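Q: My labmate handed me this sequence with no annotations at all. I'd like to see what the chain might look like in three dimensions before we decide whether it's worth expressing. Could you predict it?
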Amino acid sequence: MERLSSRTLETVEPGAAVSLPPQGWAGQRVGIVHLGIGAFHRAHQAVFTQDAFAATGDDRWGISGVTQRSAAVRDQLAPQDGLYGVLERAVDHVGVNVVGSVREVLFPGEQYERVIERLADPAVQVVTLTVTEKGYRRDGSGHLDLADPAIAAELAGGPVTSAVGRLVRGLERRAATSGTPVTVVCCDNLTDNGRVLRRLVGDYCEALGASDLAAWIDANVRFPCTMVDRIVPATTDADRALGEDILGLRDEGLVTAELFKQWVIEDDFAGERPAWHLVGAQLVADVAPFENMKLRILNGTHSTLAYLGALRGHATIASAVADPQLLDVAEHLIADDVIPILAQPEGEDLSAYGAEVLKRFSNPALAHKTTQIAMDGSQKLPLRLLGTIRANLAAGRTPHHALRGVAGWMAYLARPEGADGLRLPVDDPMADRLTTLVRGRRDAAEVVDRLLDVHEIFADDLRDAAGVREELVGTVRELL
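A: Here is what I predict for the chain of 480 residues:
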């Protein structure tokens, strides 16, 4: 079968199951650099950007995608002239949205200078990032981890391999050349993500002794906060085969997603931006209420279902939601533990949002693996569940269901297998430490105490909070 490209795209007829890039897609100029061009970006920000181009014809916002660790995405998309499909799946719909907004993909391991040139290019007015929570290399206090091997090597004069390092070096070149202002848009699940990234950039500049650069960044670079939402499971061979059937072409860059997508952006830009607001993105003064809604309702429930579901032998989130006991935990987590301590974002109904989240999770067309959602728990837990627990404790409430989610994470780390022999891999920046502490241990109190002692995850307040340890021990004992 022929491969998707600008030439073979001409053979594809648009229709109910296929949407094609707007006319002129191949002539777009690069105006956005994206660091971390994985599946989520291709199914989310790149789609919003294509939709904005279709709505306005403004061709200044093509994307230069930068890979993080390998040349895989470059090798997928370069032979396809940047084209790829988003396989959108729901119970009553399946279709491929062909996206042409990515105009080049760069691999810094071989094209580092080209990446820095792009970041410095005055035509680039927006830099976006999706590098996952762990990609920001923060320490326990939320600052740049100067002891991180990659950061330490960079500061000692070695190759620049971190996302923050590449961003700072690109801004350094920009300051020294055109000096054109730029907006850096963090699109990862971090509380107050724009300001988090701004602090890390400042930490990096301080470690370099680059006070002049830091002053230029303060004056010329904006870091708006955002909230992003779309379920994007790992693409399977079956997805690729289905995409081929629909397109009639082989697509090595295919990604899979649900129909729903949301993007809330703080309206704080240094210059121009694509017309994302015309195609569904929400430009707001304060992202925090939306961010907390998503992190605590959607992400917190997602993680809880992942850990508890995997322990019960459920391979996918949809299967976990179909389990009446787990659905009950999820519903009560949202209604009893999260909604009472949340500020309601303007125009949102929190109960309706929670119901919609569970409906999205139940979509059997998306094989979102529980073990995939279980990744990086040491980074996700503080953002998704511990904030909910602290807020409830401060209000004099005991968040039983949020604590059950934390107990699920603890039992997941301790048990090598879930029910029916489902393997429970630990894919986490702290995997070696966490597995050494508890893997294979059956004493619930020992498991809980050893993990509560990991200060980077749990500060002393939770260990000392009345009833928290006891409830965790009881639940972990049950789960083990």
